[in-house]
Design brief:
The protein is built from two helices and six strands; from the N terminus they run E-H-H-E-E-E-E-E. The protein has one domain. 24% of the residues lie in helices and 33% in strands. Strands 1, 2, 3, 4, 5 and 6 form a six-stranded antiparallel β-sheet that branches. Bound molecules: zinc ion. Zinc ion (ZN) binds next to loops.
C-alpha cells in the first residue's frame, strides 16, 4: 500500500452490524478505550446502513478505523482503530 494513504482516505464500507461488532471488539480489547469513547462522544444515530472505514495511519496501515460515535459538539465522526486502539476524528 502506498505511503500516502492516510486517515482521510476511505478504505471500504461496512454494514451497521459489522461496524457495531468491530467497535465493540476494540472497546473490549483496549484498556480505557470504552470510557474514553463514552466521555468524548455522543452515540451515532442509526440512520446509515453503511459506514465508511478508514486506514489507520499509525500501525503501518494495518488497522482499520470504525465509526464509534460523534465527537462532542458534532464536529466530526469519532473513529477507533481495531488494531492499535487509537482514536481519530473524521
Ligand atoms: Zn491503528
Amino acid at each position: 500500500m502506498s505511503s500516502n494513504v492516510g486517515q482521510n482516505f476511505p478504505y471500504a464500507s461496512e454494514s451497521e452490524a459489522q461496524r457495531a461488532a468491530a467497535v465493540e471488539a476494540a472497546l473490549a480489547t483496549f484498556d480505557g478505550l470504552r470510557a474514553k469513547v463514552e466521555v468524548e462522544t455522543t452515540p451515532l444515530e442509526p440512520d446509515a446502513d453503511r459506514w465508511w472505514t478508514y486506514v489507520c495511519p499509525k500501525d503501518d496501515f494495518t488497522g482499520r478505523l470504525h465509526a464509534a460515535g460523534y465527537a462532542l459538539e458534532r464536529h466530526g465522526v469519532y473513529t477507533v482503530c481495531d488494531t492499535c486502539g487509537s482514536t481519530f476524528l473524521r
